[in-house]
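Progress against Task 2.4 (sequence-to-structure conversion) is shown through the following example record, which the project officer requested during the mid-term review.
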Amino acid sequence: MTPPLFHLAAEQHSAPVTDWAGRIAWVVGLLVFVAFVYWLMRQGWKWRGTLQGDLPELPARPAPEALGEPTLTAGTSPATAPGGGGNPPLTLSGRYHGSTTAGQWLDRIVAHGLGTRSRVELTLTDQGLDVVRPGATDFFVPAAALRGARLDKGIAGKVLTENGLLIVTWRHGEKEIDSGFRSDRAGEHAAWVEALTALSTNNTTSTTKHETEGAR
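Structure tokens generated for the chain above:
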């Protein structure tokens, strides 16, 4: 076999050698980096929770019999009359997207499980807002603690379409909190804003009246 033909045959039969050691080292390095980033996120979460250690424990849910009847949809419809009407109770099934310091949509609150996103079932009564979260911490916002509601598009790093989130503002201890919810039926949000605003306004007016009378 002539030398040129010999080299041609060698090139055809030789296979590239895989650098397995290099590939394994690269994969291990990537896994270590991902684990390190995850650890940093966990430490940041714990650090934020420590800073929020002065936040009181969340109000416990009252016994079902203490909640009263669900508040009916807001407005001047027959449903708000003592005899009831054709509108259903104001309840909501959807997702809880987190809580922040009121007015600061990126200042996430993680203490007492408020940073955990979850499914949610909401019920509004004259006593307040009942928040049931399967797999996470349930809590209750007394009517006197409600400060209003609005529609927005983002909270705690979660951005949705315009007016895609129901934001409920409430006071807990010395802190005002925005909590974000999204109904499975986004068309319900407007009724919730109306009802929560009315309930918080009524309670604020009542509280102010009692304080004024007490000062006399």
